[in-house]
Amino acid sequence: MKVLITGAGGFLGRGLVIPFEAHDYKLRLMDIAPFTSPRHEVVGGDVANYADVEKAMQGMEGLVISHMAPRGDKDINYQSPLLPFDINVKGTANLFHAAVKCGVRRVVVISSTGAIMCNTPTATKACDRHWPLRTKGYYGLTKAIQEVIAEQFSRTENMAVACLRVGYILDGQANVDKYGRSIREINYADTDRRDIGEVARLSLECPDLTYEVFHVMSTQESLDKADVRYTCERLGWKQKYDFSWLAPEGTYKNQT
C-alpha cells in the first residue's frame, strides 16, 4: 500500500513510520519543515495550502494524518485560534477533501485523549471511547474537530477512517518525550510512538473498518483504564513498548 504520512518530520512522525517500514510499505512523507529520509520519498508542503495537499496525495492508497500545530514554549501557539485552526483543522479538512478527489479511501487520524478530557473519570475508567467529545482550550478543541471532520467524511464519502486517541507520546527506547525531557516514572497514559505507528498500520489494513475510535497507549494499566484492551482485540494489536522498566509513578515525588 502507498501511504502519505503528514507531519512525518516531527517527533511522532519519525517514530510512527518504523512499523510501516517493517512491513515494506511505500511511504510518501510530508512536512512543512525540511527533513530527509534515506528510504522514502519526502515532499515539502503546508497542509493549510490545498494545492500542496492535493499534489502530495496523487497516487496514494492510504493516508495517516499526524501533523499538528507546534505548541511552543508554554503552549504559546495555542493561546489563540489562528495557528491551531489553520494547521489542525483546515489542514485536516484539506487532506480529507483531497483524499476523496484522488480516490484515497483509507485514512487514520492521530487524535488525542485531549478531545474528551472534560468528561468525568470513574473509579475504573480514566477515559472511554464512548464518551462524547468534551474538552477545553484550543488544543483539545482542534483535536475534537478533527474527529468530527473524520466522522463526516467516513459517513458521507464511504471512507474507512480510524481516529487514534493517543496518550502522552514518548520514545521508550530513549525514555524521552518530544521535548527531549527524560522520563523516569511510568504513567498509565504513556504511549510509545512506534506503538502508535503499528496501530495506524493495522487500522489501514482492517478489512471491515468504517469509522471507529481507538485508544492507543502502551502501558499494561491502560488496557482497562482507557479502553486499550478493545483496540488490541479489535485490531489484533499487542503493545510492544510497555514502559515496565520505568519506576512506579510517584517514586521521585519527594526527592529534590
Q: What structural category characterises the helix and strand content?
A: alpha/beta
CATH class: Alpha Beta
Largest sheet: 7 strands, parallel
What is the second-level CATH architecture?
3-Layer(aba) Sandwich
Strand content: 15-25%
How many E strands?
10
Instruction: Please name the fourth-level CATH homologous superfamily.
Output: NAD(P)-binding Rossmann-like Domain
Low-confidence parts? none
Counting DSSP H or I runs of 4 or more residues, the number of helices is 7
Name the average pLDDT.
95
Brief account:
This protein is α/β, with parallel strands linked by helices and 256 residues long. The chain is built from seven helices and ten strands. The model has no long low-confidence stretch (mean pLDDT 95).
